[in-house]
Write a structure and sequence with these properties.
five-stranded mixed β-sheet, 18 helices, seven-stranded mixed β-sheet, Aldehyde Oxidoreductase, domain 4, single chain, alpha+beta
Length: 754
């Protein structure tokens, strides 16, 4: 019988989309702990206590405590690998206890691709300190010096005499270490046991291998408990009633309008917050739809649509201006340039687009509360609920349960506060599940960007000037800012929100360069165009602008886009990454655009670079453009990726594939549509995302740097996809797209303008 091969694309199409790139099943596989732990860690929240970081049970199982949550990216497995490596225990003995505020140190929010970079060293040093303590105890028990001891699978033995041994479980199993370790700083900047020497990377056996994900078997068998599936005894169901237009207030609420619906328990009103609680979820849905609320006229309105929004960015005086780079004399260099190029690029409001909307369960009893949700920031969410309810922070217990993807959405996690208000009102646990129109309409969006770049070339085609100016909105809902329910009950946010940026993110070196960002004031009162951190915040828009402009300069000089970029890369890592992507993609040097292309379907290639948190990425996109319809199909994306030492290669590949798919979706089709009253696309029909039949093939080159620290692998590879696609479209049809997304209508308009 002939052997049949099945491509990744064919597999996705024929299976309806199930694609798991991990070796799941081994004879012994331990899973992420979802319930209790083998050893209580109550009170062990101080970073200078070894018991705050890990516990060893009587069977040798090692439970690792971390407030860094796994959002489905595999970081829980990777952190477990780091601990297993330092302790010399098999992964089958590792259990991860994630995101419980009573069982972990506050290591800061999980965002910005910084988990392995920041929490990785914290976990490594804590595990190394535990190993040091265990070896000291073993030396006393075995009557041998520490330097003669070796560890194999959690068993300490004397070199040359394997029979003379003692296990970790015997040394401390089922008991606390009661050992103090040095610790300083807080959250991301926390330093743990810095003087303890960890393993040399050359001796790694677990880190750097594709250990199977701890969470996937339970997810495939349906045993995994997501946030949406949390159920507690006596639980009721709640829904929030939103105003039909922006920032309106309830003038009156007619509770009799829902009195005939069976199972309705209470209409909850506090300040501008209106919600309903019922015995069943369907009753809550019916009541929320039927409740008659008279809303006030909104005190302010949005710009009339996306075009008006860009005008607002262009014409409004900023409240914050930041300069990220300023070297040489850009003005003089531009004045003397033989050729000047100026272009403005537009990146729209975009949604996080969680497949399942926000959900939380809260149980408020007197002066204490327990909350379950998928928050990216357990301690921030805990503290926000405490502020809302007027409770002590330590009296709110947050328990993490993974949601269905969030991409930054659940750092500002609204549902816990909704549930907490309603639970307090009825004295019972309440589950709040947002509806799709709630999520699309009211989630904090990634803000729009208006970016103008001016560049200058001398007579030899060398770049002499680079002037980058970005105009955008602040984050109105991020970090410690009050959530919707808090604002509706009178807790006020900072006046202007959170301004971020200033840099252009480029790896290139120019003699005269300036990069600046102007942040424009935005409405801070509750409204559907809230803004917050969306995956690799601001990164896609910046990269789209800068890498498009790099291509525009390459075209002006008649150079191949790769060779043009290499002239300005002083960093060897960046140059190696660029060359690796080009080589893997079979890049042949030539100027853009592609020769030929007289038929209806034109093909092109484009390249782009990006970086984040020390990670360097290059991508080559290969596209087909239908010149009649304007439809763009991304056939293949080749990615080279250097994030320092790679902890789990399989997990990293999975993350890169997901990033590229989402990056293509955002570049080709995602844009929030709105008018003066609010968001218009409240479902997946009006806000489409990429479908399986449109998913590109992804080829990956991983560049491992064993002597470097781990850097961010979570978001970096999502940044350059849109820029590479834009450059590939130009290569195919000679039309430069300067506004995202690259919809068929915009592509056709650009083709006709050539």
């Amino acid at each position: 019988m002939a052997k049949q091969s099945l491509s990744r694309r064919d597999f996705l199409l024929t299976t309806g989309g199930l694609f798991v790139g991990f070796n799941l099943f081994e004879p012994t596989l331990r899973l992420l702990a979802q319930g209790g732990t083998p050893l209580s860690n109550a009170g062990g929240l101080s970073a200078d206590q070894l018991d705050s970081w890990l516990a060893i049970a009587s069977d040798g199982t090692v439970t690792v405590f971390t407030s860094k949550v796994d959002l489905g990216t595999g970081t829980g497995t990777a952190l477990g690998q780091i601990v297993a490596e330092e302790l010399d225990v098999p992964m089958s003995k590792i259990l991860m206890e994630i995101g419980d505020t009573t069982k972990s140190v506050d290591q800061g929010r999980t965002s910005a691709s910084r988990t392995l970079e920041r929490a990785g060293p914290q976990m490594r040093q804590a595990a190394a300190a535990a190993r040091q303590e265990l070896l000291t105890r073993a030396a006393s028990r075995l009557g041998a010096p520490v330097d003669r001891l070796i560890v194999t699978d959690g068993v300490v033995s004397v070199t040359g005499n394997a029979a003379q041994n003692i296990s970790y479980a015997t040394l401390v199993g089922g008991r606390r270490f009661d050992t103090k370790i040095p610790a300083s700083g807080e959250q991301w900047d926390l330093k743990v046991a810095p003087d303890v020497k960890p393993k040399d990377p050359k001796d790694y056996k677990v880190v750097g291998t594709s250990v199977p994900r701890l969470d996937l078997p339970q997810k495939l068998t349906g045993e995994f408990v997501y946030a949406q599936e949390v159920r507690v005894p006596g639980m009721l169901h709640g829904r929030v009633v939103r105003p039909p237009v922006v920032n309106s207030r309830p003038v009156s609420v007619d509770e009799t309008s829902v009195s005939s619906i069976p199972g309705v328990v209470k209409v909850v009103r506090e300040g501008s917050f209106v919600g309903v609680v019922a015995e069943t979820e369907w009753a809550a849905i019916r009541a929320a739809r039927a409740l008659k609320v008279t809303w006030s006229a909104p005190p302010s309105q949005f710009p009339a649509g996306p075009d008006a929004m860009y005008d607002h960015l262009q014409n409004t005086r900023p409240f914050s201006e930041r300069t990220g780079a300023d070297n040489g004399n850009v003005g003089a260099a531009l004045a003397q340039a033989a050729k000047k190029i100026e272009a403005t690029y537009r990146w729209p409001f975009q949604m996080h687009g969680m497949i399942s909307p926000s959900c939380a369960v809260a149980d408020v009893q007197g002066d204490r509360a327990t909350v379950w949700s998928g928050s990216q920031a357990p301690f921030i969410t805990r503290n926000g609920v405490a502020r809302l309810l007027g409770l002590k922070e330590e009296n709110v217990h947050f328990i993490y349960r993974e949601g269905s993807g969030c991409f930054g959405r659940l750092e500002p996690d609204d549902a816990p506060e909704d549930a907490a208000l309603m639970s307090r009102a009825v004295g019972k646990p309440v589950r709040v599940q947002w509806m799709r129109e709630d999520e699309h309409g009211w989630e904090p969006k990634g803000p729009p960007q208006l970016i103008t770049i001016r560049s200058g070339l001398d007579s030899a085609g060398k770049v002499t000037a680079w002037d980058y100016l970005e105009r955008t909105l602040p984050w109105t809902d991020a970090r410690l800012s009050p959530m919707l329910a808090s604002r509706q009950t009178g807790i006020r946010p900072d006046e202007n929100g959170f301004a971020i940026g200033g840099g252009d993110g480029i790896p290139y070196v120019f003699p005269n360069r300036k990069a600046a960002a102007a942040t424009i004031s935005w409405m801070m009162n509750p409204n559907p165009l809230r803004t917050g951190n969306l995956r690799a915040p601001y990164g896609q828009g910046r990269c789209f602008a800068t890498e498009s402009h790099m291509d525009e300069m390459a075209v002006a000089t008649g150079m191949d886009p790769v060779e043009f970029r290499l002239q300005y890369l002083a960093d060897k890592r960046a140059a190696d990454v660029l060359r690796a992507a080009a080589e893997k993609a079979g890049w042949r040097p030539r100027p853009s655009r592609a020769p030929g292309g007289n038929g209806n379907i034109a093909t092109g290639r484009g390249i782009a670079m990006s970086g984040l948190a020390g990670t360097v990425v290059a991508q080559v996109a290969e596209v087909e453009v239908n010149k009649t319809t304007g439809k763009v199909l991304v056939r293949k994306v080749t990615v080279s990726h250097d994030c320092g030492i790679i902890v789990n290669p399989d997990g990293l590949r999975n993350q890169i594939e997901g990033n590229v798919i989402q990056g293509a979706s955002r570049a080709l089709m995602e844009e929030v549509d709105f008018d003066a009253n609010g968001v218009k696309n409240l479902n997946w029909v009006s806000y489409p995302i990429i479908r399986f039949r449109e998913v590109p093939d992804v080829e990956i080159v991983l560049i491992n740097q064993p002597q470097m620290a781990p850097m961010g692998g979570g978001e970096a590879s999502s940044i350059a996809t849109g820029a590479a696609i834009a450059n590939a479209i130009f290569d195919a049809v000679g039309a430069r797209l300067r506004r995202a997304p690259f919809t068929p209508a915009r592509v056709l308009q650009a083709i006709r303008a050539v």
